[in-house]
């Protein structure tokens, strides 16, 4: 037998062309599982069936095809080790030079509407990954191709190296082999996990999606991984125009998405460095955008804008009046697309499902990672307590809910000053709460008069309440839970404020 190539592929694209070159140009013999052999035979190629070689038929409806020592011995043997060569000879095993495998389409199968569990299970490839792993492990002696895209570069490599690929080429193929099997198993594990209610915090980290130009800074490399098993969230978004998305764009877009997902009325959030600089909710999307922009026009320059309703011409015209990095909405009509196309660098995305949030959040620490539930708690206003003698009106409750929802998405310590469902001042990420209060009130200025203030955590002292009242704030919403709550409530009563305690904290780091 000449050099042996084992071909066992679900996706038969490019198979015949590859096999012809292997035989004609490089003198390979071919060995294949049933379906693959049939395709090759139909193209007039001579091929040995795995079952004829091993003397063992495919069984269990294809669950066992290539899982045989004669196959795996041939893949795993080290051609430079005498003991391995002797073992092969003793058991009539021929070494295999090339393994070409692509796997059952598990992800495409589970993405099909109405797919049954049985169908999903039968599409978990077992023999294919076993061969990919074996060949990748033995890359010093075997080349492994797991993707149709590798066929041409492989043939080119053979042509340039007298029919033998370089070790570096084989190593790269092995890397791709293990990348493929780990991604495949991640998809299976995540799918099974989704079917289970008892595995809350076990998660595989995801499937590689694409390499990004760089990370948070140009010297940091970065890549995008998909954590769902199919196109959910941002991997289901369509970029209609503009420059390539960066790491920071994606981080900001996600932060913006979380804010607008809080609202059903037309809502717009403008983000900078993962914090909102302007959020507006209104009866029309145009008015919501104008409110969000007017909240802090200086910071809005170069911002990331998320809108929770489809963009039409009126909003598109406003959007193009300033420099923005990215715009995302659940839709964008043709007239709006036309208008925005004048700003050719602006990244415009359509994200059909901007509501679904991940169930968990992951943070990497040295030597491991932490997983927590996402802050997806349903806001239950019936559990809010009015702590002050002065009670809120219905209108004030609407305003307080707006400020509270935005505050949830501002980095702690977070303070939001708002009115007319528009942010007016946002205090972000200060190491003491009163520092954030000061920033938010200063930014709001005169606009704080008659306004509302939300705090993501409790007030440890009454100073924030005094400052709020002095700036003209009429009502405060905060979690409560401090040992000195009574001090804050007493001052709120003295200064004729409304204060609501939500009983829920929304730290964000
Ligand atoms: N069970 C096995 O021994 C086995 N060996 C190879 N396969 C897969 O069967 C497919 C090729 O089958 P066929 O040549 O019969 O079309 C490939 O996707 C390959 O990954 C197997 N199928 C599933 O596990």
Automatic annotation (TrEMBL):
GO terms for molecular function: IMP cyclohydrolase activity; phosphoribosylaminoimidazolecarboxamide formyltransferase activity. Residues 1-146 form the MGS-like domain. Pfam families: AICARFT_IMPCHas (PF01808), MGS (PF02142). GO terms for cellular component: cytosol. Coiled coil: none annotated. Its EC number is 2.1.2.3, 3.5.4.10. Gene3D superfamilies: 3.40.140.20, Methylglyoxal synthase-like domain. Belongs to the PurH family. NCBIfam families: PRK00881.1, purH. This is Bifunctional purine biosynthesis protein PurH.
